[in-house]
Amino acid sequence: MLRSVKASDYMAEKLVTFTPDTDLFQAINQLLEHRITGAPVICNDGKLVGLLSEADCLKAILTLTYHEEEMGGRVGDYMSPEVYTINHDADIIAVAEDFITNGRRRLPVVKDGKLVGQISRRDVLRAVEQFAQDG
After folding, report:
1. I want to staple 73 with a disulfide (CB 3.0 to 4.6 A). Which of 2, 24, 106, 128 is the partner?
2. Helix (H) or strand (E) holding 49
3. Percent of the chain with pLDDT over 90
4. How far apart are CA 105 and CA 100, in angstroms?
5. How do residues 46-102 score in pLDDT, each as one tens digit?
């Protein structure tokens, strides 16, 4: 049964992450280098504390330009502190429902408040495809 497939079975585990102290322009460089639109922000203990998106970076650049500062800033100053997550043992149907209901493309996966991975719409489709082939 498809509900027996868990988020942790299909999540990506090797993620680009930042800390609140990461230099903003270093973070922007990482987003561009890895061709990703955002990345989780974690503390040293692995606890998820925010998300830095391309939009957050653009807002930061506009703010810095407005204040006539060319460089500066840390990820923690510009990240979105409210992050919607999914638990590592959520079933794949619950993940799909969250994507549809809330219009999200990806979700950080947490276990005991700590980031353990990320799952995307494509990961859910892979799970369904593999389940259909095995069934």
Report:
1. 24
2. strand 48-53
3. 66
4. 9
5. 899 999 999 999 999 888 777 666 666 899 999 999 889 999 999 999 999 999 998
Return the residue matching tokens 């082939």. 133
Question: Burial level of 26, CB count in 10 A (0-12/13-18/19+)?
Answer: exposed
Write down the pTM of the prediction: 0.81
Q: Which two tokens stand for residue 77?
A: 């100053």
Residue 40 above 80 pLDDT?
yes
What would the two tokens of residue 132 be? 């259909």
Q: Which two tokens stand for residue 57?
A: 């970076």
Q: Where do we find the tokens 């990703």?
A: 36
Degrees, nearest 5: CA angle 83-84-88: 115
